[in-house]
């Protein structure tokens, strides 16, 4: 979890290179197919072959925390059956909170968990966000 530009995607990819894991995206906007540029969605090359769920999967513009919850439960169970661990990555805390706090699914009682909040120095974050905005503008100018 963390703000845009703090390195959540990079950290998750680094973790998957050391452990058997697959990634579930929890960002509310990156779930949509059509928003690759404006959401700074991780590129195919940046994924480094790591499986990502709920990243650019949805066409419907009304994907709520409840929808995320239902899909994520299916993905979590599926990932665990393959002897991998799911990493839930993104800045939309309400999506993550819905999974963790659900009284029926009981995530926090069923699974050992580790929550990592990414944070960076404000000047470093500003530089990163400025770079991201410049990259988005350049990509949009070629459309």
TrEMBL record:
Indicate whether Transferase appears among the record's keywords.
yes
* Pfam families membership: IPPT
Q: Which UniProt keywords apply?
A: ATP-binding, Cytokinin biosynthesis, Nucleotide-binding, Transferase
- Superkingdom: Eukaryota
Does the keyword Transferase feature in the UniProt annotation?
A: yes
SUPFAM superfamilies tied to this protein: P-loop containing nucleoside triphosphate hydrolases (SSF52540)
- State the similarity comment: Belongs to the IPP transferase family.
Instruction: Return the protein name.
Output: Isopentenyltransferase
Q: Which organism is it from?
A: Solanum tuberosum (Potato)
């Amino acid at each position: 979890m963390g703000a845009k530009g703090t390195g959540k995607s990079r950290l998750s990819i680094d973790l998957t290179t050391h452990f058997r894991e697959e990634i579930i995206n929890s960002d509310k906007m990156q779930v949509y197919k059509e928003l690759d540029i404006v959401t700074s969605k991780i590129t195919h090359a940046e994924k480094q072959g790591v499986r990502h769920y709920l990243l650019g999967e949805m066409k419907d513009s009304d994907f709520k925390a409840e929808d995320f919850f239902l899909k994520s439960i299916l993905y979590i169970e599926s990932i665990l059956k393959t002897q991998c661990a799911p990493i839930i990555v993104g800045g939309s805390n309400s999506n993550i909170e819905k999974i963790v706090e659900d009284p029926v699914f009981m995530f926090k009682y069923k699974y050992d968990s580790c929550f990592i909040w990414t944070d960076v120095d404000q000047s470093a974050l500003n530089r990163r966000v400025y770079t991201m905005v410049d990259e988005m503008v350049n990509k949009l100018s070629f459309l």
